[in-house]
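Q: I have 347 residues here and want to know how they pack in 3D. Can you give me a structure?
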Amino acid sequence: MSAPAEQATDPVLSARDVRVWYGTTRGAIQAVDGVSFDLRPGETLGLVGESGCGKSTLGRGLMGLLPEGAKRDGEVLYRGRDIFAMSPRQAYALRGSDLGMIFQEPLTRLNPLMRISDHFEETIRQHEPKLPRAEVRERALDALRLMGIPPTRYRSYPHEFSGGMRQRLMIALALVLRPAFVVADEPTTALDVLVEAQIVQILNDLRRNFDTALLLITHNVGIVAEACDRVAVMYAGRIVEQGTVADVFGDPQHPYTRELLASTISLSTTGLRFIPGSPPDLVDPPPGCRFHPRCPEAMSVCSAEHPVPVDRDGGGTVECWLRGPRTLTDDERRPLAQEELSDADEA
C-alpha cells in the first residue's frame, strides 16, 4: 500500500528553468526567465505580480498556446512526460483532456454565433469523436450543474448570460474533460465581489472533489489567500519568492513581496500605498536584481550581480541578496544612493 501513497504525492506538473521569448523589432523580449515550480494533485498555486511581469505568458507557455514567433525553453514534465519535447500533435492531444485553460474575458473566447450546446459538443468531440450524442449532452449538463447553471440554459447563446455566468461557462468548458492540470488566467477579472466569491468557492471545490492541480494567475492577493495552498511572486519574468500562502504572506522575505502586500487595500487601510516606478523593459532589463531600481533596500551588490534562489525561512525559495547565499562584504552591502537608483531606472 506504500507505493500508491507515494505516487499520490508526486507532482502532476513540474516546471524546470522555463524561459519564453517574444521576437520584436527592438530585439528579443524574455518574458519568462528561468521559472521552476511543482504542482501536486489537489494543490493550487497562486501566481501574483504586476501587469507585464510574465504571468499570463508563463501560463500560455505551459499550455503551448504562444503566438507564432515566440520561443520557449526548459523542461515541463506532465506526469513524467516532457511537454516541451513533444510534437505539436502530441501536445494538442493533451490539451483539453489532460491540460485545461480558463481564459480571462469569456466573451472573447465564446463564439457569439454558437449555442452553448455547440461549444460543449465541439470541445468533447475533439477528443472523443465516437461518443454518442446523448452522452455528450449528459456530460455537458453535468459540467454545467457543477457550476450552478441550470440545464434549461444549455441551448442559450453566450450573450444571454451575465458576466459571472459566462465565466462559469468557461470553467465548465475547461473541466468537461476532467483535466488533471488547469491554468486559470484571471478568472475573476471585472466581476463584482459576490460573483468573485462564488468563483473562488468553485475553484476550492475543484481541488476537493477532483484533485485538480490548479495554477491561478491573478492580481488579487485576497483571492490567493482564500483559494491557494502556495503562492509564487513574479517580477520581470522571474519568480522572486514562493512558499506556502501562510508563510509568504505572514513573513514576506523579498522586498517586492513586502511592497506588493503593503499596496493591497483592506478594511484597515487608511491611506493608499504604491510601488514607485514600473516593471523594467524586458528587451534591456537592468543588470543584477531586476527589482533594484525600485527597491527601498537596494545595496551595491544588487545592481551588479543577479541573486540566486535560496531556501526561505518556513520553506520555499527567495531570490534576494538580503537572504544570501553568501556573506556580503561591506562594499557590497553599501546602500545604493538615490541618484544611482534614478540612473538605473532611466537606463
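Q: Anything worth noting?
A: The longest helix spans residues 193-210. Confidence is low (pLDDT under 50) at residues 1-7.
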